[in-house]
Please model this.
Amino acid sequence: MNKKKPLIALTPYFNTERDEPYMRPAFINAVRHAGGNPVVLPIDQPEEDLQQIADTFDGILLTGGPDVHPFLFGEETQAHCGNVCLRRDKTELALIRLAMAAGKPILGVCRGAQILNISQGGDIYQDIPSQFPQEFPVCHDQPFYYDIPAHHVTVEPGTLLEKIAGKSTLEVNSMHHQAVRKLAPGLIASGHAPGGLIECVEKPDYPFLIGVQWHPEYLWQNDEAAVRLFGAFVEAAAAQMK
Ligand code: MN
Model:
């Protein structure tokens, strides 16, 4: 008898210039390598279809992409905010709400971590360089390829991230100009970049909800912590199938 793999829903990237959703193969490969069955969702869906998706899929993976619209966290658009896709923002916020009501495991990557924080009432820096100045700025927009780490992340003891990664410091890549600012009620910050920027959020009273600011989908081939992150997510998705 064939054992069913956990069905993982991936929200798509969005190219704002071409008005096109797309998916990066790195995400598909990372989920497959972890034992999941990846399926890419459309960019927007009516609520009743999202309800079915939240009920049917075993895990939700919120991928990276354009900036989140500032109205969704109660701000005017700042001069250095990037392009947005409001349709995608609204779909993802509804999907997070429905998936959480169903207790489904959720992994957020980059923008995915930011929108998880916004969905729970937190906000983000619209632009790190102009809103989070540092005396010795850490590079969050690396000029080299994505499989090379750019900065360290300090892992907070006793967190899900520590349990998954099994170490107190991670080497991560960094391709983001936005980041979590005010942490949402109910979430904790479990990883920080040098200088204090939040790089990982999680929800301790929920079965499995974690958002990372870096891109583990480009690291897993050379990084055990990234393998373990996707592995823990797919394992949590498998656990709720029973
Ligand atoms: Mn970073």
